Amino acid sequence: xxxxxxxxxxxxxxxxxxxxxxxxxxxxxxxxxxxxxxxxxxxxxxxxxxxxxxxxxxxxxxxxxxxxxxxxxxxxxxxxxxxxxxxxxxxxxxxxxxxxxxxxxxxxxxxxxxxxxxxxxxxxxxxxxxxxxxxxxxxxxxxxxxxxxxxxxxxxxxxxxxxxxxxxxxxxxxxxxxxxxxxxxxxxxxxxxxxxxxxxxxxxxxxxxxxxxxxxxxxxxxxxxxxxxxxxxxxxxxxxxxxxxxxxxxxxxxxxxxxxxxxxxxxxxxxxxxxxxxxxxxxxxxxxxxxxxxxxxxxxxxxxxxxxxxxxxxxxxxxxxxxxxxxxxxxxxxxxxxxxxxxxxxxxxxxxxxxxxxxxxxxxxxxxxxxxxxxxxxxxxxxxxxxxxxxxxxxxxxxxxxxxxxxxxxxxxxxxxxxxxxxxxxxxxxxxxxx
Length: 435
Ligand SMILES: NC(=O)C1=CN([C@@H]2O[C@H](COP(=O)(O)OP(=O)(O)OC[C@H]3O[C@@H](n4cnc5c(N)ncnc54)[C@H](O)[C@@H]3O)[C@@H](O)[C@H]2O)C=CC1
Ligand SMILES: O=C(O)[C@H]1O[C@H](OP(=O)(O)OP(=O)(O)OC[C@H]2O[C@@H](n3ccc(=O)[nH]c3=O)[C@H](O)[C@@H]2O)[C@H](O)[C@@H](O)[C@@H]1O
Known about the structure:
Elements: E1 2-6, H1 12-21, E2 25-29, H2 33-40, H3 51-61, E3 64-67, E4 78-81, H4 97-106, E5 115-118, H5 126-137, E6 142-145, H6 155-160, E7 165-168, H7 174-183, H8 185-189, E8 194-197, H9 199-230, H10 234-242, H11 263-276, H12 285-307, E9 316-320, H13 335-345, E10 349-353, H14 358-364, E11 369-370, H15 374-378, E12 383-386, H16 391-394, H17 398-402, E13 409-412, H18 419-424, E14 428-431
Helix pairs in contact: 1-3, 9-11, 9-12, 12-13
The site of uridine-5'-diphosphate-glucuronic acid has 21 residues, from helix 9.
């Protein structure tokens, strides 16, 4: 099948390469010429495990091309819209500028029978509005909303073998459903469940799923706050409640909380949209979810002050990990970068290291200091902060770090280390939610 993928960022680039691996012919379109140049050379413009290999193989088939010209989407039968929907400046709402611009630019190149498939995360009501625009301007072209559930760091596997497909289709959606079934034939044959529903339900499934995940994280972080005042241990608490199959242990890792280009902006956009719909009470709890999440960052900064005698001014602070989670170079709304920036504002000499995130972090916070190795970051440190739990930081040997630091103080922002190991090596170990 001939497909176009419009928007080749974290979602679209992976989607394009994966669709080729399923046997389709794909043109990827993006307005960013640098991104398109890298992709056309077979280079992944961001870090995502498995993507470089997949891209090289896909380029080798001759069935993957990239362009900045939306006219090159003409001829494809299915057009995936994967552009960004960031938070609007000065508001909680989603900025739909890119979705609207991409669909408007695509319409002149559509033919009757073509299917536009929205994959971006949008406020409920967006699909119906775009469907009306498409129907008015290209009779016979169709729209489906097929939200994406991939996680960065596992994007390739999540795209090829998702937990489920959700198709939001119009009332007589059989043609749209048949086209999507052809696109995803391989995973469907392997038994992946698919839910065919209306636009509004499909849009809500996506924000409901992310809201649930964010709520689960903030729930355990609220318990961490209680553990801190009672002397209890949030990691053991999570293990214990997680053994109840109805609760489950996944997404109960307490620590610095959630960041990234999705959970924070999605819960805020959900609240903003519910407000517009007069249903703000229904998701009012998300305000608390957001507030608990922000408080964890503040608590980490306070802990850094506490272990430094009340002030970090003039102190050398090593920050291990700056991305919003391991196995990604993404620093959008990164809790780690936020904490590092707050400490720098308080006068600390912050030395940041990260395996993949330094370039992106430097673009956002050029005034902070970035170094390539743990040895450089921790040299002479008054405190070491583990803020993103990359494997190499989880595996650090305290005896090795002892040689570099000025004070053996470690703050584990992700509950990723074994306190007994660090204490046995003579370190003062502090964490969020456990003693
Ligand atoms: N990053 C992720 O893990 C996931 C993201 N999503 C959703 O997917 C959407 C995209 O997210 P990301 O890929 O992370 O964003 P991103 O910012 O990495 O990529 C968006 C891309 O769209 C391009 N673009 C903007 N306007 C365009 C236009 N008019 N025509 C063509 N290209 C255009 C940008 O240049 C950029 O490369 C968002 O709605 C997000 O919430 C959903 C699931 C997972
Ligand atoms: O809509 C999206 O874009 C995606 O958002 C999240 O995926 P992602 O942002 O890649 O990352 P997650 O693995 O969900 O982690 C999000 C944040 O929560 C934090 N987290 C996660 C799990 C946990 O137990 N504790 C915790 O603090 C992570 O450190 C990270 O900062 C969802 O997991 C995906 O299903 C969804 O498709």
